[in-house]
């Protein structure tokens, strides 16, 4: 099976990879960067007034690609509308992929990124999957570094605050033909954001969803492509009408656990063998390979205090474990929030109650959930020196 999977992926990626390796066309080059600064800098928004993804900084990055020429010079220019023909493929066939990452300001005022190479690598896997062009991730990171220096005042200060970066690529060929786009645009916008939980954690209730499916093996669930998200909006709306903030996406006949909303899922429990185990579903093609997920696995393994596994779990197993009081903590994980504690899961009409902190009835997150969150923040804000935190020079 692993061999088949690898071969299958290899075949799918072969064609777009060739596009990039072609020596006839230009790669993305940071030293060609053109900078145009805004003449109308906007007023900053106070930290307390920031709403996730609503405010944007003064500038944006853009770069254009054409199949016969390759990448044009990247630009940092004033944040503005983009003008596209209504026939551009992105509007019809969801020729779009994106990333989510953050720039942090540490106590010395230095700008830091968290494992940005992982976002670049993942974006290239996403673009390959939808037949958009590859680019040199190190070069885009250099451009992002220049952009961050120009928009430095937009990186809010304080633990929990950051400039959320949204690298995006779209197919821009003007054609209704269903075919790989021969033109593309890469852009990056920045949005100052505050802590996901400004007044401390607030645990969420989930609706275990099996009437809709987010992703499936050999589908595109492991790619951060726009086409994966619109179909999740209706189930999310239906769940919220019933009082559940997110969907717990299930898959298959035995209701396998996959992801929570747009986050990876972690379960801390006493497993069937009675071992304390932190478990998350394996990267089988239907799970988005989160940077936060990977970081949590690696931190928890370094602690060496409990078993850490990537394994399948299903809803009946989780329900039994809840009934037998073997579940310790459940949380979602992703860049926007780091962790989101889960307090309830509705499954086939039954509300399963997940413990938060047994030692503190008012707590909104369990001790391991909190520790993961605090350790990640210490690294992101440079309070612990760690190779994952990269200073922008
Ligand atoms: C972005 C995303 C995640 C989290 O990935 P991070 O790299 O940790 O931010 C998880 N699941 C889905 C579906 C996502 O889109």
UniProtKB/TrEMBL annotation:
Family: Belongs to the class-IV pyridoxal-phosphate-dependent aminotransferase family.
Positions where N6-(pyridoxal phosphate)lysine occurs in the chain: 224
Cofactor annotation: pyridoxal 5'-phosphate
Record-level GO BP terms: L-leucine biosynthetic process; L-valine biosynthetic process
Enzyme class: transferase
Full protein name: Branched-chain-amino-acid aminotransferase
Coiled-coil regions, chain positions: none
GO molecular function: branched-chain-amino-acid transaminase activity
Alphabetical list of Gene3D superfamilies matching this protein: 3.30.470.10, D-amino Acid Aminotransferase, subunit A, domain 2
């Amino acid at each position: 099976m692993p061999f088949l999977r690898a071969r299958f992926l290899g075949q799918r990626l072969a064609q777009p990879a060739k596009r990039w390796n072609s020596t006839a066309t230009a790669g993305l080059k940071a030293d060609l960067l053109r900078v145009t600064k805004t003449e109308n800098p906007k007023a900053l928004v106070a930290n307390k007034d920031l709403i996730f993804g609503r405010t944007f900084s003064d500038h944006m990055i853009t770069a254009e690609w054409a199949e016969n020429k390759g990448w044009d010079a990247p630009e940092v220019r004033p944040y503005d509308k983009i003008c596209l023909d209504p026939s551009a493929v992105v509007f019809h066939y969801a020729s779009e992929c994106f990333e989510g990452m953050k720039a942090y300001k540490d106590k010395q005022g230095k700008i830091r990124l968290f494992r940005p190479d992982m976002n670049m690598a993942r974006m290239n896997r996403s673009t390959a999957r939808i037949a958009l062009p590859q680019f040199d991730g190190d070069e885009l990171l250099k451009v992002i570094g220049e952009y961050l220096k120009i928009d430095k005042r937009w990186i809010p200060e304080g633990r929990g605050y950051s400039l959320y970066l949204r690298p995006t690529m779209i197919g821009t060929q003007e054609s209704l033909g269903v075919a790989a786009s021969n033109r593309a645009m890469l852009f990056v916008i920045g949005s100052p954001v505050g802590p996901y939980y400004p007044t401390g954690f607030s645990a969420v209730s989930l609706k275990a969803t099996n009437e809709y499916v987010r992703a499936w093996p050999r589908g595109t669930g492991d790619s951060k492509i726009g086409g994966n998200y619109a179909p999740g909006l209706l189930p999310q709306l239906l769940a919220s009408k019933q009082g559940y903030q997110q969907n717990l996406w299930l898959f298959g006949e035995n209701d396998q656990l996959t992801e929570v909303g747009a986050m990876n899922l972690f379960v801390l429990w006493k497993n069937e063998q009675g071992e304390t185990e932190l478990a998350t579903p394996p990267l089988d093609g239907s799970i988005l390979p989160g940077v936060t997920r990977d970081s949590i696995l690696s931190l928890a393994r370094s602690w060496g205090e409990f078993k850490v596994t990537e394994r399948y779990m299903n809803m009946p197993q989780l329900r039994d474990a809840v009934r037998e009081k073997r579940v310790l903590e459940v949380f979602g994980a992703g860049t926007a929030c780091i962790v989101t504690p889960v307090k309830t899961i509705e499954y086939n009409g039954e509300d399963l109650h997940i413990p938060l902190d047994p030692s503190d009835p008012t707590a909104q997150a369990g001790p391991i959930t909190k520790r993961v969150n605090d350790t990640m923040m210490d690294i992101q804000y440079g309070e612990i020196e760690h190779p994952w935190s990269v200073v922008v020079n």
